[in-house]
Amino acid sequence: MGGAILAGLLSSGFSAEHVSVTTKSEASAQKQREQLGVKAFALETSDQANRQAVEGADVVLVGVKPAYVSAVLTEIADALNPDALVISVAAGITNATMQSVLPESVAVIRSMPNTPAIVGRAVTGIAPGDRASQEQLAIAIELFETVGKVLVLDESKIDELSTISGSGPAYVFYLIEQLTQAAIQKGFSEAEAALLVNDTFLGAAELLVASKKSPAELRRQVTSPNGTTERAIARMQQTDLAEMFIEATDAALARAKELAAN
Question: Which ranges carry the Pyrroline-5-carboxylate reductase dimerisation domain (predicted)?
Answer without folding.
Answer: 155-259
